[in-house]
Amino acid sequence: MAIDFDLVKEIKQRADIVDVISYYLSSVQKKGKGYVAVCPFHDDHDPSMQISKDKQTFHCFVCQTGGDVFTFVQKYDKCSFEEAVRKVCEIIGFDDPRLHKQTYQRKIDENLLPVYNCINELQKYYVYALTTEEGKVARDYLDKRQLSQQQCAKFGVGYAFSDGKMTIEYLKAKGFSLKNIENTGIAIAQTSGMSDNNQGRLIFPIKDSNGQVCGFSARKINDDPEAPKYVNSPETVIFTKGNILYNYHLAKQTARHDGYVYVVEGFMDVFAFDTIGITSCVALMSTKLTEKHIELLRKLGCEIRICLDGDKPGQSAMMRLMAQLDEAHLSYRLVSVPGEVRDPDEILKQDGEEKLKTYVNSLVDPFNFALNYYKNTSPLGSIEDKKKVIHHFMPMIASIKDKLVQEDYIYKLSEATDFTASAIRNTLKDFKGKRVDCGASLTNVNAEVNTSLDLSKLSRDLRRLTLAERTVLDLMFVSDEAIKFYEQDIKYFYNEIYRSIANFILEQYKETGKIDTSEMINELNAIEIKNKEQIINEISAINFRKDKAKYSKKMLEDCNTVINEERTKIYEKNALRQACQGKSVEEQAKILKEYISKRK
């Protein structure tokens, strides 16, 4: 769902940022020409957030959060940009038919449109089949599994007629070619013609992150022991299993607000969570987590809660997922109830909603989960097994700075392995010592390298460069000459955020002949780019900065001189450090000697 950009501009002109922020905060008060408020985005006690009625922006000088009216609502309500726009309309009492228009955001290859149209028609056909007399067998099964009509409608559950040829004939009658039908992944060739591979089964549509149907999972509802439990869509031109998290398109609407998303194994677990009111839940459809899955989870910006089956395979899969999530630096916890081997759907059916709620809220951190795993799922028999576990946890314990938490982990590890706490502390001491020793052989050369690079001076060089670039950037917001000077003489900034903002300034200036920070933030809100939040924060800060330089040609030229000098120094020193990385002591010494010789 996307909102017309012209409509967004119109809404922004109608909305007063002071009024909208006052809707959320009672601390807004006038101060001088502007307004201030207690910032809700950090632990603020004195009003540190400034609001400009003229510029229609806000900025907090403590946590550096800033933006426009939509940015504020997005951050406060933890919602998407489109949801923030609608919320602003609700606050100011504005409505427009364009707000309710559904549009498909993703650009689709025109060659694939017939396939998408075909699979959408097929989904409607399956939903219809569920309502027919033949579909009663599927409805009875759903009643038995305690799935409500509302849930079936929400998740698009359907039924495939037992005569698979009927499906093919229906789609052909709708004008779809056999090639397009085949590309949906449901058709199988038989001697008597093409037929629906899902025939006689309950249908669960699989949708991509935008809510577009791209495949199906068909469950058997008869007692045929020879038939597979599920028939899943094969890889097609529109369906790649490793790119899909089941129910992601719905979970993403609530996960940011909830602050979490549960990751479960299958569809029925998602339905079980939905029954107890948890909508922020996705299913892997297997126990394998792909890079695409990690990318999708990262976009949600919330805690990940892993809840796979409680049996040994499920718990082992959670251990594998932990390694992937650690490598991806994602925040997560795991559902763990020692001795509970049932999946969430079974707990719901056998013990009821309250029991499932208690179960899914039994969350532990990675250390405690891994410890429970070794104690309960994979018992430690030999001394060697116990030693392996001790060494497995050493890096994790060594990384903990809080001594009380570290001691807690040591005692728990002692309890699990029968080694004394003092023995584990000694092992930890040895582990830390070895890490220090590993780097000791390079100490002398590194000292020489660092002396030559003068790291404190490198930091000063970078601060000097940043100040010069920021001064030019400030001037670009108020001076046409500064914009032209940047484009002709400076060309690019070393600071990535400043460089992005400068590019937006050039683009806006060429299009409109002027610079409007509010309009720039508006455009940024509507697109997805790297470091968007930092860029918006920096632009909003410029509106409130009191130490901005006044324009002069000499000021620009002086800044350019500094930029060229410091950029050269930093590039040289970074190149030296990179050249030394991974090299032996002798090789580093040789590289350093050559560098010093060239500098002299």
Structure, explained:
It is a single chain. This protein is α+β, with helices and mostly antiparallel strands. It folds into five domains: 5-100, DNA Primase, Chain A, CATH 3.90.580.10; 110-239, DNA primase DNAg catalytic core, N-terminal domain (Alpha-Beta Complex); 248-378, Dna Topoisomerase Vi A Subunit, Chain: A, domain 2, CATH 3.40.1360; 380-440; 455-593, DNAb Helicase, Chain A (Orthogonal Bundle), CATH 1.10.860. The chain is 57% helix and 10% strand. The protein contains 27 helices and 16 strands. Strands 1-2-3-4-5 form a five-stranded antiparallel beta sheet, sandwiched between helices. A hairpin with a 5-residue loop joins strand 4 (57-60) and strand 5 (66-67). Helix 17 runs antiparallel to helix 18 (403-417) and helix 22 (480-490) packs parallel to helix 26. The longest helix is centred in the last third of the chain and has 28 residues, at 553-580. It is globular, with a radius of gyration of 30 Å. The termini are far apart. 32% of the residues are buried. Mean pLDDT is 85; it is low at 436-458.
Structure characteristics:
600 residues, alpha+beta, DNA Primase, Chain A, DNA primase DNAg catalytic core, N-terminal domain, Dna Topoisomerase Vi A Subunit, Chain: A, domain 2, 5 domains, 5-stranded antiparallel beta sheet, 5-stranded mixed beta sheet, 57% helix
